[in-house]
Structures are given as C-alpha cells and as structure tokens.
Design a protein that fits this description.
With about 120 residues, this protein is of the alpha+beta class. The chain has one domain: Beta Polymerase, domain 2 (2-Layer Sandwich). About 30% of the residues lie in helices and about 25% in strands. It has a five-stranded mixed sheet.
C-alpha cells in the first residue's frame, strides 16, 4: 500500500500567524483588555468578547471603527476594526473584536458614534 505524503503548509503562513499572535499578546499583556477568545490568522487576529460593552473598552484603548451586521434571528454582530500599536518597523496587526447582541439592545453612545454608516 502506498501512502501519500502530507504536505506541509507554507512556512510564511505560520510565521504570519505567530507574528500576529505575539503582537496581540503583547497588547493584551500591557492593557488588560478583555479577550476570552483569540483566533490568530495570517491577515488579522479575531477576538470575541462577551458583550458590546467590552467593545467600548477596546475602542477607548485602541480606537477604530465599528461595523454592525444585519440582524439575523434577532441578533447582530458588532465588530470593532482596530490595530495593535505600531512596531519599530512601522507595521501593525489588524485586530477584529466582535460581540453578538440582541438587535434591540440599548447601546452606549460612545460605541454608537464609532459605527460606520
């Protein structure tokens, strides 16, 4: 019986994931921002938080803009598009911080003003 070799993913993908993970871990370690779920990818790091108020903490610390999904089954996804601090080489990592909320939930004014319309 012949076996098929397992292809190793390109090293640059894993290097990018590792680099992004390190940048976000440094940010989290220095700020204490809530990040119960962190999913690093080569192009960005996705962070899921417990509620929309947690987006306000991230917004106050890092700035950015918030996108809101259309309601589906009475729930909307609120996503803050932000970045890590700039590194010595001038680069930063995109961070997408998301929280699900009921479509009719009252939202704080500072969060509403950051929503892209």
């Amino acid at each position: 019986m012949s076996t098929q070799p397992i292809e190793r993913p390109p090293t640059n993908r894993w290097a990018a994931i590792s680099d992004n993970t390190l940048a976000v871990n440094v940010l989290l370690g220095s700020t204490g921002l809530p990040a119960p779920t962190v999913i690093p990818l080569p192009e960005a790091v996705h962070v899921s938080v417990a509620d929309v108020d947690d987006l306000g903490l991230w917004l106050a610390e890092r700035g950015g803009e918030i996108h809101v999904s259309p309601a589906f089954e009475g729930v909307q996804l609120w996503t803050l598009h932000t970045t890590t601090p700039e590194r010595a080489d001038g680069s930063s990592v995109s961070v997408l911080v998301s929280a699900a909320a009921p479509a009719d939930q009252m939202i704080r004014h500072d969060i509403l003003t950051a929503v892209v319309r």
